[in-house]
Amino acid sequence: MITAVKQRLQSLLPHANKEVAVVSESRVRAIAGQLIGLRQQARSIPLDIHKILSSQSGAYLSPFRGRGMEYDQSRLYQAGDDIRNVDWRVTARSGKTYTKQFREERERAVIMWVDYRQPMRFATRGVFKSVLAARAATLLSWSAVQQGDRVGGLIFDEYKHRELRPSNGDKGALHIIKQLCHFDDHGQPGASVAETTDGSATAALLRLRRVARPGSMVFLISDFHELGEQGESHLMQLTRHNDVIMIFIYDPLESELPAAGRYRISDGVHERELDAGNKAVRREHQDRFKHHVGYLQSLSRRYGMSLIQCATDQDIEQMLRTGLRLKRI
Fold this sequence. Notes:
The protein is α/β, with parallel strands linked by helices. It is 41% helix and 24% strand. The chain has helices spanning 2-28, 32-36, 88-94, 129-146, 169-181, 201-211, 228-241, 252-255, 279-303, 316-325, and strands spanning 60-66, 70-76, 98-106, 109-115, 150-156, 160-167, 192-195, 217-222, 243-250, 262-266, 271-275, 306-311.
């Protein structure tokens, strides 16, 4: 009996090891199959939340009424109304002059700006910040596709960046997913790949300004370290003609140190010991995080952006759903 149980366990062990390996890998890098599987969940994430500033024709209905192609309603004529818009049928039936109102059909590009620099390749709980960023970008891409929007993106790290022109349909979302999963591989089709000598967030924002055409909805997904004055200037320019949403990704360790004790930490090259029991050290650590969050909140208020925060051990779908619905017009 015992021998039979041992044999059964041994036969299952390779499969168990494979499952553990897949789970472990999915915490540190984006897996294409898992991202594609987020399509159904994306239906719960609303993107019809902000005014659209472009005037291109397409499938998106602007909240602003005007002389467009989509009939909205008829109302009593008012002084100054264009006589060409008189609704003669309703006027004849009611005996009062009515004028037609239209909703303009507008197309929108949804752009994902995804930070894959080294500080994003980190987590103490949940998944790497870069993995959470990939999931956020994928959910938003699928949501945009389901609404008939075009999806594009800019993914960057310290050494290179990839630009994806906005595309309609599943093609746009699948291109985003492919690049998120294979960003470290060279020669991937469907994107403009360029080496860079400046892998800062500031340089990536400058490139984004060239990619995002007026009227776009732009999602900035990052931990937003080292923006600087020049980065703020690029943000200001982006928000003048686009809807911009900042998604701040952080690890719980960044907000609060672990229980009191001495911890050896390393960046892969240097090592140091951290005394988490030192009250001054704990307070300084927490104050640094609060200052960073306060800085991002100030930026969002100053330039009319939305700010959504998500930790690496939180449900990104829930955070997006809640954060975006709070901003619905």
